[in-house]
Amino acid sequence: MNGWEYKIATVNTRHEPDILEWIRGFRDETAEVQKLLDSFGQEGWELVAFFPARPADHTVKNDVTGQEWTIDADLWLYNAVFKKPFKRED
To answer: Where in the sequence is the domain holding 38, given as residue range(s)?
Structure first.
């Protein structure tokens, strides 16, 4: 029976230029994301979804201590979902 195998990768799309990039001019900020997509594509993975990993601030509470803290939204952090054919042996 054929099916699908899935993989989720969390991608930080923010690029912080180093000093050489400041001197020479900025490089394409999507280069690291492109590299990731190309490498998964070469392994046979197909991108099926790309969505924000932390789109909103949210509060987390420790049930034991009662301590609460806020995790900030991250506009640069995304989840990429990939799939590729998987052949199961029945």
So the answer is: 2-87
